[in-house]
Each structure stands twice: as C-alpha cells, then as structure tokens.
Amino acid sequence: MNIKEYVYVSLLTAAAVVMGIIESSLPPFFAFAPGAKVGLANLVMIIAVFTLRWRQVWVMQILRLLITALFTGFSVFLYSFAGGILSLLAMYLMKQFGPKLVSMIGISTVGGFFHNFGQLAMASLLAKTTSVMLYLPWLAFFGILAGFAIGIAGNQLITRVKPIQELFIKESKQWT
C-alpha cells in the first residue's frame, strides 16, 4: 500500500467509527424492534468493499470494530464482531459472482441480513439458548431494509463523488 491508500483506508475507518458511535448514542429508530438500527457505519463499509482490495477491507473492518469497542464496551463488541465479520464474509462471497449477476444494492442487502444473523447467533451462544433466534424474522426484515437503503446510498456516493468514483473504477477493473 502506498501513502495515498493508507490515508484513504484511515479516513474510511475513522468515518465508520464516528458514524457507529453517533448511531449508538441515538434513540432507537425502530421502537417496535429493539436493537434494529440503520447501520450508518455500513455505508462506509460498502464503499470500502467496492473501492479497496479485500485485504484492506478486512483490516479496516477489524480496526473499526476494535476502535468502536473502546467507546461502546466489550458486550457491544462481541455482537458487532459476530455481525460485522459474518456480513463482510457474505458480501465477499456475493461479490465473487461479479457485477453482471449482483449489484452493490444486492451485496449490501445480503450484508444487512447476515449482520443481524451474526448478532443473533452470538446472542444465542452467550444466552445458551436458540430461542433468541425467534427474533430473526424481525431483525432480518429490518436488516434487509437497511442493507437495501445503505446499498442505494453507497451507489449514489460512488456515482456522484469523483474521488470515490475514480477508486471504484480502478478497483472494478480488478473485479471483472
């Protein structure tokens, strides 16, 4: 990685951390579905997925989770880690299908679902009961909606913000 890439990864990581901390301090957006959030930090992650190499994205995700944990605590870290790693793995696998079969919106939607699935799997593991998974339909619904919205927003950023657009074009040549 060159200096420009280090700076870009650092800026994206910082933006994701700040967005995550801000969102965690806001009142619940979906009062009828406790724990459901839009996932603003995932907007930065979807931009990273489409503008960075995978190794850089994984490093960024781990850094984001660790730094955010300093502000939110260990229990939040466990849930975020499970959801973040599983969703990134799912997005990585989906992206392997290529741009002709799956879009940024589709990849983000899959990421939203698997983020919630990972969090519930961690809750199930910690609570030592699978009954926690009964909450999956609710969270999956909101995860898919949030992933869809984040995918649309990410798509808009990539097409309208010139520096991001240039990185996307550069990285997409390696994708095809």
TrEMBL record:
GO molecular function, one term: heptaprenyl diphosphate synthase activity
Enzyme Commission number(s): 2.5.1.30
Enzyme type, top EC level: transferase
Parts of the chain that traverse the membrane: 6-22, 29-50, 62-89, 101-126, 132-153
Pfam families tied to this protein: Hpre_diP_synt_I (PF07456)
Keyword field: Membrane, Transferase, Transmembrane, Transmembrane helix
Superkingdom per UniProt: Bacteria
Name by which UniProt lists this protein: Gx transporter family protein
Organism: Lactococcus lactis
